[in-house]
Amino acid sequence: MTGTATLHRRPAKPPAGHGPPSPGRTPGEGRMAALLLSPTLLVLALVIAYPLISAIHQSLYRAQSGLDADGYVTEGEAFVGLANYADLLAGESGQRFLNAFGNTTFFTVTTVLLETILGLALALAMNRAFKGRSFLRASILVPWAVPTAVSGLLWRWIFQSDGIANSLLGSEILWTAEGTASKLAVIIAEVWKTAPFIGLLVLAGMQIIPGEVYEAAKIDGAGWWRQLGSITLPLVKPTLLVAVLFRMLDALRMFDLPFVLIGPGKESVETLSMLAWDESNQLRYGSASAFAVVLFLYVAAVAIVFVKVLGADVTGARQLGAKRKARAADTTEKTGATR
Amino acid sequence: MRQRRHTWQTILTTTALATAAAIGLTGCGGTGAGTKASASAAAFEGKGPINYVSSRDSSGAANKSIEEWNAAHPDEKVTFIELPDSADQQRQQLIQNAQIKSDTFSVLNLDVVWNSEFAANKWVLPLPADAVPTDKMIPATVDAATYRDNLVGAPYYTDGALFYFRQDLLTAAGIAAPPKTWDEMKDACTKILALPEAAGMSCYTGQFDKNEALTVNFSEAVASAGGTVVDADGKPTVDTPEAREGLSLLVDGFKEGLFPSDAITYLEEQGRRAFQDGKVVFLRNWPFLYSSLSATDGSSKVAGKFGVTSIPGVDGTGVSTLGGRNLAVSPFTPNKATALEFIKFFTSEEQAKKRLELSSRAPAYADLYEDPAVVAKRPFFPTLLESLQNAQPRPKVVQYGTTTKAIQEEAYAALTGEKDTDAALGAMQAKLEEITAK
Amino acid sequence: MTITDLRGLAAETPAAGGAGTRASKPKSSWRSRSVYAGLALIIVYCLAPFYWMVVSSLRRTADIFDNTLLPQPFSLENYAKVFDGSTMFGQALLNSLIVAGVTTVAALVLGIFAAYAISRLEFRFKSVILGVIIATSTFPGISVVVPLLRFFTDLGWINTYQAMIIPNLSFAIPLAVWNLTTFMKQLPFDLEEAAMIDGCSKWQAFRKVLLPLAAPGVFTTAILTFIHSWNEFIIALSMINDPKIQTATVAISKFTGATEFQAPFGEQMAAGVIVTVPLVIMVLVFQRRIVEGLTAGAGK
User: I need a labelling partner for B95 at 20 to 30 A (CA). Which of A13, A63, B246, C103 fits?
Assistant: First the structure.
């Protein structure tokens, strides 16, 4: 093991692709990694692989929808190839699909953007030292802790035509009817519920920034905004990106909130998940599976693009690799001194 | 006219039952060519513990019936498996378990609108013709439990629309009797809304949010104008002048300000509240709110001031849509004999009467509505019986989910003014034709 | 200013100040006031809807639609109904605790192993594995239910805790792996190295140095996954039909109004308050660990 450590001591120039601590690949490490990773992969295979394969399989078939002479549904399914997928783009179901696709994308972009800004603000607030900080933290956690189904109902009541929202605003907006107001209602409720998720993760990211960095910046005369821009944000970036990534994946699959708050079948807020649910509710399992598979591919594509373009890269941590290494060496010396 | 329809329907149902009975008889002998795949008694075998699957009955009446059964049948105990309160979630759980042929769910509590779908997919067994005393039940409830001449469920409870009106305001405006038609209702409103005590009120509301309730209100409007949504042969008929007149009643109601402006977001509860807070003079709703409207603890502003009658139509009294629930046997349960016996016991008139002590759910047995002891406790029962004897089931189609969605979609578009009435009905007709053509 | 510059500066100052004391001191009372106003605004934003939930839960069923800011008349009717014997809500809370607790612990253990492997070991297909792990969490939950129900029925897992815990892991593990990997990546390897030079084994270095340093990440992941499994509904609903094993969210869905058209809104809000408050208290306990994580780790 010391061998690895010595190897690692080799300074500067992190290897191009992945910038791991130990550039040398030993067979022992591979085996150990396999050992450590296998339980995770096993569980995921158990829970996801089977449903995924069965969905892909199902999406190539279509149940026969006819009735026989006695009025019973004809049994059996016919292999239809990619027809379920082709139908997604054609005719009325195509319009519904595109509408749901648009809504899903719109909600994801708006809510995640607002949540990121708000989540950062929440994290900064939680990170401050002041009296009553635990009260603030408790308050921020409340929305995330409220069960999703209950929060959907709560907001439905708040947004009723004669609910508290209209009564406070002195307005007569029909939030739960079709239209822009219903989109807004979903965004407000979703951001309220999930901004704490980003806030919490970012707070944890802030906690591992060594305090002396800020002390140094202060001595250097850097103001609050400057510290935020040049220390806090760059250093929490990896955590923030993971938080945003997971929020995006979740927002793309948004289901409960528009379903409970506005109701099923309303075009203004219908998402891809709701569409897949509705199709399987109508017993059209083939097209329901096709929706699910398309949604899966869409989400996966977003994840890949996000990771590639924005560099939410946790395997290599390319950007900060060298700098962190240097900083790390410094910290080691100090820790050594402390000991 | 109402009388005529009633007679016609009774004849139809009786014929259907006779046919079913005949088939039931021949079914025992063997399966001749051309006979319906009717259930013979032989299909119901196996005794032992079973599960009854339903949402909770908050009155506790259902649990009491089950306790009584369990006390008498220690070896064939019934366990109550509770499903969520939401009908969508109930249906999802029931279908999921049918798909994997799970033997956990034995006796199913089905909404009347799921009847055809469950029967056609063979997720419930056809019942022997003598399983329930259908002759004593309100014909529409039996019709709603029948699929292609086979009884597939035992009517558990039923539901029909009531027209709630403000007696105090009618009296103040000098109107002798509650309106029977939409025109009479509009006239009454003109007089009533001119009264100082009715300032700021709206005339009428039903339930118009994009939901099953909209299908109900639309179907009632069409039937009240003399039309049908789907005719007796299963053909969609919403492109008729009657259907147009029916939908126009609702569309004009919004345009002319007859309904509250936020009625497009109303479900049953919001309608109850609007009436209870004195915001509307007339209300179409189910019987459930009768007791909360009558509450004298200060929560209801209309206690003692309202009355009920049948919903208004175009030329005479309107036609209610039928709600309610049936009990059915899952083909995947090993203990089918017990399941059938339990259904017979549970839906018997004796148990139905016992449950009325705790629950206000309307029984399927007609004579219970005229029982003095029952009426004393539930004064709206005679009116409800009138509404039920006249009631129409919602479209009986296998793909009910798609059907109701098409109706809601187009009716909602017409009510919000997104489409004009003709365009909406044309599109609805096209969609329904596509669904029923399959 | 870059990080490297800062490092240089940092080296000149003693390692002072733990987490939390680093916020710059307000320069003027005006600024301090506006900061407090901002904080107050955040608290109001987060708590106002929750306040509405509490108020609604304290109304009588008949007044549930009132818009008064205080319940009038005040009533505990809804809370009494939630804990009415027939709903077995107390048992349901315990079941939620078991399911969410086991899910969290399992996800953390597996997640820490995997994150350690990815951030500290060198092996082939690392990016592929990370990609696969995240891809699994992108499959829409509602499409997983029927195949899993079939699968678990065959295994005889209906009405068991594992039938809820294992599907919950499909969300919890990816989050744990990704988040912890990010954390461990950011932590200097040299500390463990130093510990190993001092004679610690790799395992000891991991346990005594890396793990305490990663504590903020570990506890944050714990909180997030715990709450996520605590709130899971559709799987728990499908896999469980025995009220003795059902979780709180499923129990809430079974609340019934006075009639089938009346939503049991008051009871649902009361139950919402009941499941939220202990969660927040528990999280606050964890929160302290998040803050202490760094200082505790660095001191060893």
Answer: C103
